[in-house]
Amino acid sequence: MPCDVLSSFSCLDELTQIVYQSIHRFVVLSSVTDDKWNIYLGLSGPEGRWWSGSWTEADILQTVGSKPSEILLEAFAKKLAESFVQGEIHIGDWSPEAGAKINLTLGPSSKKPMHVPLVEMSAVDAAAHATNVFLEIALHAQSRKCRLHAAPAEYSLASITPSITPVASHAVQEPAPQPIDSSSKVAARVQGSSQKTAKPSANTVQVDKSAQEEIKLLKAQLEKQKKRPAASIEKPAAMAPHRKGASLANPNKKARKYQAIEFESDED
């Protein structure tokens, strides 16, 4: 039988889940080897009892068909893995009696639940299996500086801090908008429409000088405009002094002279 059947079940390797049923608490372990899909069931308590079961390639083909495609096998394995991870697990025919025939049921509420028969392990086999489990845990702990569990909260926060700091610093360094003075406005006018999209260059100092000159020129023009109305108003011409002998009605003409008429006295 080709080994491609079990290679499609790699998604079921190294899975673990906790099952609460009635007053009991179970731990379920799933692993995949070259020729089997293995299930281990442990009962929490002082007795430390273990059960085991497996599916061989023949069991898998009996369930999915004698000539399944690789796509069908992978879809079937993923369906089992989803039921395992989501906790859709039930201990079928459970009995605490020794030698009881129980099974692990995946997808108990589905149309076609899958059953894996379980057999209780001997005390020696259970102890050996428990030792192997702790050995795997210790090997994985090497990458966590030999810690049994993940790093404490303070280490997690410290690892998160570098990702937060650049965002905060970027927000602080963002420049605040500055008010635009009159010289900047004039400089913008001088540059013209051709330089609206131009980027700052090395000639910034020269542009500033020309802007200052333009400001002086505009100020001078403003001063001239202010003075021009006062200068344009002509003062009325000073009245020429009244010429002696000129006519009051028409100063350009001489006044008429009237000679007094003298009458001779009767006595003469």
TrEMBL record:
Region of interest called Disordered, as start-end residue ranges on this chain: 222-268
Top-rank taxon: Eukaryota
Name the record gives this protein: Uncharacterized protein
Source species of the chain: Crucibulum laeve
Lineage, highest ranks first: Eukaryota, Fungi, Dikarya, Basidiomycota, Agaricomycotina
